[in-house]
Specification:
This protein has about 160 residues and is mostly helical. Helix content is about 65%, strand content about 0%. Helix 1 (about 5-30) runs antiparallel to helix 4 (about 100-115), helix 1 (about 5-30) packs parallel to helix 6 (about 140-164) and helix 2 runs antiparallel to helix 6 (about 140-164).
């Protein structure tokens, strides 16, 4: 049986929400005294939260760009592992207080999900002619990357938790 565009969109959004819940649950479990502890390269839990908040806002802009047939602006900053772009996001969105960061991550994610919910399902995987080095950029692919990243960070935080 063929999956409809509405079903694909709903499945992807469900996966994105589950991934976000996983990373926020892991981050919320970190004791407050450890939220500034660097454990992932140069990043602490607060830095990971800033990173995902920043990517929510970057993806909001990216979704709008794709719908307009334009390459999302963040591709102009692509380097190894998005290092420079991510550093900028962490600098801009890093919370002073852990709880405030968790709330901000919920709000930024809700803004992204609200935007995506408002888009017709047919547009979700639609090819708008947007390419990055031959790679087709779609809304569905942007969200799949976000989901994958959140799952990865959730596991990294859980690993950190088990080490403290």
């Amino acid at each position: 049986m063929r999956v409809t565009a509405e079903e694909k969109k709903a499945q992807t959004l469900q996966g994105v929400r589950e991934a976000r819940r996983a990373v926020l649950a892991a981050a919320a479990a970190v004791p407050l005294e450890a939220t500034d502890t660097v454990f992932l390269g140069e990043w602490s839990v607060k830095d990971i939260i800033a990173h995902i908040i920043g990517w929510d806002y970057a993806n909001i802009e990216a979704v709008r760009a794709v719908l307009a047939g334009e390459l999302p602006a963040f591709y102009a900053h692509r380097d190894r592992d998005w290092r420079t772009f991510n550093a900028g996001l962490v600098g801009r969105y890093r919370p002073e207080e852990h709880e405030a960061g968790l709330r901000a991550a919920q709000l930024s994610h809700q803004a992204l999900c609200d935007l995506v919910e408002s888009i017709p399902a047919a547009e979700f995987e639609q090819d708008h002619g947007v390419r990055y080095r031959g790679y087709k950029v779609t809304i569905a692919r942007l969200l799949a990357a976000d989901s994958k990243d959140c799952h990865l960070h959730a596991q990294q935080i859980r690993d950190f938790l088990s080490s403290i």
